[in-house]
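Sample pair:
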Amino acid sequence: VFSAVDAVLMVQIAFSLFVISIAYDVICGERESGTLALVASNPVSKYHILIGKYLGGMASLLVPLAISWIAAVLLINVHPMIEFHSTEWSRFAGLFAALALYLSVFFLLSMLVSAITQRSARALVWLLFLWIVIVFIIPNGAVYLAKQVRPVPSKFVINIESAALRTAFKEKIRDYGAKHRSSSYFTSERSVISGNQPFA
């Protein structure tokens, strides 16, 4: 169910749940308390209200994530054993953008459910259900369905096929060496050493 614990897993599990916990009542909670009607009475369009809620919520999510990303960048720069080039830095930035988009989807989904439902408790229950479906059921269910559509051979079968390929390769090397015998080379397990068989 869980892969290795890393930044992607933390955003996928913890941050997405945190998004739901702060955004489930962003609209229906204000509707229940009466503040939404007060805000709507001002000369502000509902689109500006929604965009303001979205930008404020995403800023509260992305600022801590960006701080941790900047700390990781500083750690990578000062560490003597790690050397990043432009390709790695672009992937690093792309990963941050993908995680930000992932959180944005959860925040917009929370806003949608909050706008549709009348009670904040009901919105929270629906969002927790959707969170379980999106984070756990769909990824693991997709792997299961893919295995049913196109079965993956077991590790035992793959090991047998790999051993058979290695054996056939060594036999071809031996046959080649027997046909083209030379006093300068012969094959070892991993390299070519001076001897009486050439490397094929």
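The longest strand covers residues 186-187.
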